[in-house]
């Protein structure tokens, strides 16, 4: 039987192990953090499970439709555990605003597995961990640190054959196919580079964003259905200079996340303070009802992390494979701004591609080539688009973006552009926004693409989308601008600065 070594026991490592468990192989998951205390339940595990190797462990995570779809089809017993532990499972139609949801056709049998998992990361990771441990072909080692990769350079590529670890203070080697699931702090690329005189390429871009989140719990007797018949899986708004989102989690817990640009130092200092974070959230009409004193209480301080990158580590250069018997998954391979909510989805998607690669090929070179090329085909376009979104956010941050109309202009073209081309693109973008806001089928299609059910942004090139947008475009730019403005619920930059008593940049 083939030996598979997975370095990293977080979500990427666990879903890879679960996906590969149906193959005829031995799977060893190596995790440097301590083992989960089996006495913990999913309520206090949030505070008690120490995951030093996962800096974003307590931040909000988004788990896409594609993750539930896979578990529902191949591991229904795991889905039963989700339900047993109060994990919220929202159907895709429930992600639409109530006024659009009523226009959709009723759910069909082929639609029932189109659900999104909503829960705090410690809860999901705990359930994945318990499930993986129950599978006989998976063995999980804790308090073991991977310190190097075993292999040698063979011409233009490196042949990997295992890893070097520290177990109980002693060096120990493990041999087999190596999967890097160590996340953004992975050192595998630097270890591999020591075996060759040619560095590995990467496509990298700083996001320049700060991600701040805080957890709350509904009081006893309160329900997440605060808007009776008007439930959305996520509440929030994008005001250009700042973005808010609220995510209902399991058992009455919910989290509020805020995204700002690195240049907003005074705003960041304010939002780190619990009372000012709370005050800023109260300024958002969609969020404020959740925060009424008789409805909920905060259960954490504001948490933040920064220095995020859009990064793609390249293991196939100009058609030439750089490393065999080594597979990077999740943030170890592809990482984007966490606000896009794709990190765990990348890991889930690549875990399925891993299984396809191992099923399809025994030749190590063909197997790795297939894995990396298929990853590029499936995720490359998403990575490029999210890099462009980061460029837009950076450009917006450097501009005078108190005025909404400037936001619209920057979304489609540099402010200096003039003429017919500028008019058409800005008018088309506004009409597109209104079409999405007004058409439930178009909005649902975009959700499917964002959740990796269908090709990312493929709807933009379809004639049906173009016709819908042109219909709204002919209604006039001024009319569409007013409709989009009505959806912007919250203070502008100057108003929020005065509210929080901070100096505006």
Automatic annotation (TrEMBL):
Source organism of this protein record? Aliikangiella maris
Protein name per its UniProtKB record: FAD-dependent oxidoreductase
């Amino acid at each position: 039987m083939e030996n598979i070594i997975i370095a990293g026991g977080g979500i990427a490592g666990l879903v890879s192990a679960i996906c590969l468990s149906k193959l005829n192989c031995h799977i060893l998951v190596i995790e440097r953090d301590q083992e989960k205390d089996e006495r913990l339940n999913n309520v206090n595990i949030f505070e008690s499970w120490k995951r030093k190797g996962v800096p974003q462990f307590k931040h909000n995570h988004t788990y896409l439709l594609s993750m539930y779809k896979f578990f529902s089809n191949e591991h229904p017993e795991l889905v039963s555990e989700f339900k047993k532990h109060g994990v919220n499972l929202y159907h895709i139609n429930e992600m639409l605003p109530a006024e659009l949801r009523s226009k959709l056709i009723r759910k069909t049998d082929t639609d029932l597995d189109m659900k999104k998992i909503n829960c705090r990361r410690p809860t999901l990771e705990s359930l994945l961990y318990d499930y993986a441990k129950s599978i006989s072909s998976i063995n999980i080692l804790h308090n073991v640190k991977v310190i190097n990769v075993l292999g040698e350079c063979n011409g233009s590529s490196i042949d990997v054959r295992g890893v070097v670890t520290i177990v109980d203070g002693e060096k120990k080697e493990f041999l087999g196919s190596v999967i890097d699931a160590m996340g953004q702090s992975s050192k595998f690329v630097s270890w591999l580079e020591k075996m060759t005189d040619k560095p590995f390429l990467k496509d990298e871009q700083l996001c320049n964003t700060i991600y701040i989140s805080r957890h709350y719990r509904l009081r006893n007797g309160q329900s997440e259905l605060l808007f009776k018949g008007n439930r959305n899986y996520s509440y929030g708004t994008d005001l250009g200079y700042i973005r808010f989102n609220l995510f209902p989690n399991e058992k009455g817990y919910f989290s509020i996340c805020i995204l700002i640009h690195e240049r907003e130092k005074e705003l960041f200092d304010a939002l780190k303070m619990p009372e000012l974070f709370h005050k800023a959230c109260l300024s958002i009409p969609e969020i404020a009802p959740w925060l009424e004193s008789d409805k909920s209480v905060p259960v954490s301080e504001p948490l933040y992390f920064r220095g995020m990158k859009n990064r793609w580590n390249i293991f196939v250069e100009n058609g030439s494979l750089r490393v065999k018997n080594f597979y990077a998954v999740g943030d170890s391979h592809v990482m984007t701004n966490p606000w896009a909510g794709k990190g765990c989805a990348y890991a889930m998607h690549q875990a399925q591609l891993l299984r396809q690669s191992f099923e399809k090929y025994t030749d190590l070179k063909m197997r790795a080539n297939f894995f990396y090329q298929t990853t590029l085909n499936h995720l490359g376009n998403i990575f490029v688009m999210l890099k462009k979104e980061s460029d837009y956010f950076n450009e917006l941050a450097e501009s005078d973006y108190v005025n909404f109309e400037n936001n619209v202009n920057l979304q489609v073209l540099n402010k200096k552009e003039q003429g017919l081309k500028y008019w058409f693109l800005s008018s088309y973008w506004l009409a597109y926004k209104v079409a999405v806001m007004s058409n439930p089928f178009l909005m649902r299609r975009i959700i499917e693409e964002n959740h990796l059910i269908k090709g990312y942004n493929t709807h933009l090139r379809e004639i049906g989308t173009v016709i819908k947008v042109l219909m709204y475009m002919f209604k006039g730019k001024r009319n569409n601008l007013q409709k989009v403005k009505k959806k912007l619920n919250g203070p502008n930059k100057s108003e929020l600065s005065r509210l929080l008593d901070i100096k505006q940049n």
